[in-house]
Structures are given as structure tokens and as C-alpha cells.
Backbone:
């Protein structure tokens, strides 16, 4: 049986180094609040506010380290509250997506694009993918058990020797399935 731990991903933002400095001050370094499931990734102690056409979220967690481009990941419910309709995309694929205003303690940034609903995905270390015959970018079918058991289709496989095995779904998907971080999913195909 191909079992995978589940990680529920709440709304969060990845910031470029330039935007960290514009939001927090020149030379600012993010502080680690806690390490995440993926090696080298962490939830920062710092948060920002994001403002869309119809709504605002304060205290949006920053995930570090700095990225090449700023990207806000929200659930579909979050997007409605902000007054937006971003596409479902793989992380890092922000071309043609809506922008948003990001506010920090030292300033604000208006990004022209970068808001997505993250595509559900599983991070595979290359060894796990090889053992199970899974290729990078393959679309998988995954089942979660429990009172609200369901099957997720079109789960993107992301394979790298920099990854640790973990399935990432957003809060809407987790709530629909009645699952939480640490629960287990099973890859069907």
C-alpha cells in the first residue's frame, strides 16, 4: 500500500527578497517560527496583510526562505472573500494570475500577478518515486479514509531529491474530506 502523510496548507505567502526588504526594511532577515515538512522550508514568525478587491486578510503567514517571485496561495473560499478568482496552478506558475496588495510594517507592495489556488500535490523524494514507479508531473488518484472519505483525482506528483514525502491539500479540501495534518492518504493509481 502506497501511504502518504497529509499536510494541510492554510493561506500563505512566499516573498521575494526584494519584497521582504520593501515590507520589513533593508537587509531584513525572516525569523524561523517552525520548520515545515519539506527540507529547508519554514514558517516565518513574520506575517503580512493582503488586500484584494473586496476583502483583506491580516496575519498571513510568510513561508521561507525567500523565493524568486512573490506568490500568495489561497483556498477557493479565501479567494471569494478577497473578491478574486485565481486559477488552480502548480506553485511557481503565476503567469497571467491576479495581483494583490501586500502590506508589511515598513511598507507595501502591489504585485501584478502571483495569486493562485495551489494545485493539490504530493512531494516525492526521488527514492520514494522510484520505489513506487511514479514520475514527476504524473497525475495521481488518492484516497483518504474516515467519516468523510473521498477520492482526490488529478493529484500532481512533484519529484525531487530535495523533497520529503508529503501530500499537500488546502483547507477547503481538508475540510471536505474531514482530514488534518498528520492523517494518511493512499495512492490508488
Residues:
Amino acid at each position: 500500500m502506497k501511504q502518504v502523510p497529509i499536510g494541510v496548507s492554510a493561506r500563505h505567502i512566499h516573498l521575494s527578497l526584494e519584497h521582504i526588504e520593501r515590507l520589513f526594511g533593508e537587509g531584513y532577515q525572516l525569523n524561523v517560527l517552525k520548520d515545515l515538512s519539506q527540507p529547508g522550508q519554514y514558517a516565518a514568525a513574520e506575517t503580512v496583510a493582503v488586500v484584494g478587491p473586496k476583502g483583506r486578510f491580516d496575519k498571513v503567514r510568510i513561508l521561507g526562505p525567500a523565493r524568486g517571485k512573490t506568490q500568495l496561495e489561497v483556498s477557493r473560499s479565501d479567494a471569494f472573500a478577497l473578491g478574486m478568482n485565481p486559477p488552480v496552478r502548480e506553485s511557481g506558475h503565476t503567469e497571467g494570475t491576479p495581483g494583490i496588495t501586500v502590506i508589511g510594517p515598513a511598507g507595501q507592495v502591489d504585485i501584478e500577478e502571483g495569486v493562485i489556488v495551489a494545485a493539490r500535490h504530493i512531494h516525492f523524494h526521488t527514492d520514494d518515486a522510484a520505489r513506487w514507479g511514479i514520475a514527476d508531473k504524473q497525475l495521481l488518484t488518492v484516497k483518504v479514509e474516515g467519516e468523510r472519505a473521498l477520492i482526490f483525482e488529478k493529484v500532481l506528483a512533484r519529484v525531487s531529491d530535495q523533497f520529503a514525502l508529503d501530500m499537500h491539500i488546502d483547507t477547503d479540501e481538508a475540510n471536505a474530506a474531514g482530514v488534518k495534518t498528520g492523517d494518511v492518504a493512499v495512492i490508488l493509481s
User: Anything to note?
Assistant: The chain has four helices and 15 strands. The mean pLDDT is 97.
